[in-house]
Target: DUF45 domain-containing protein
Amino acid sequence: MTSPHLASDGLAARYLAGYPPELIAQADGLHAQGRLADYLARRFPERHEVRSDAALFDYVQALKTRYLRNAGPLNFVGFDAKLRVLQQALGTHTRRTQVQGAKLKMRREIRIATLFKTAPAALLRMIVVHELAHLRELEHNKAFYQLCQHMEPDYFQLEFDLRLYLMQLEAAAAEPVAQPTADSSGPEAP
Ligand SMILES: [Zn+2]
Model:
């Protein structure tokens, strides 16, 4: 559902780089009509209670025990206020793991951006699955995404929705006056 009357500000193109143009146009439409927050609220009514590093450790450990039992112990699990999700977590991991001798030094840390403390439960799970998969696969390659899907079958849809969520956070920060109406009786979000 595109929105020809409202000009795109390029936000969707930035958050959804690499996605099909139709999806970017849809996201642009939702954003331009001010319906992004409403769409996300409807899609993700469930919150979570993972607010501390200790709670995050337990959450990560439970998933790791279930899916990656042999991946070796984690050295660190915690929230990180400086982590930029789009560029550092979801982006191409440009900073390769340091090669020490002939051996790759695998990451044993799980850092989750602080914004996930208040994100929907499904999106926290998605980003934790993403970081857990990096215990096995450093790059965003086919094996990496297969592992993500093994842990979370809806992984690709959730990563797309996470990008919409991040997009909405930026849009909301830019326009703090925009308030969603209490009863939004508009058409169903796609
Ligand atoms: Zn990654």
Q: What stands out?
A: The pocket of zinc ion is lined by residues 89, 93, 130, 134, 140 (CB under 6 Å). The chain has one domain: 9-176. The chain has a mean pLDDT of 84. Residues 37 and 169 are 9 Å apart (CA to CA).
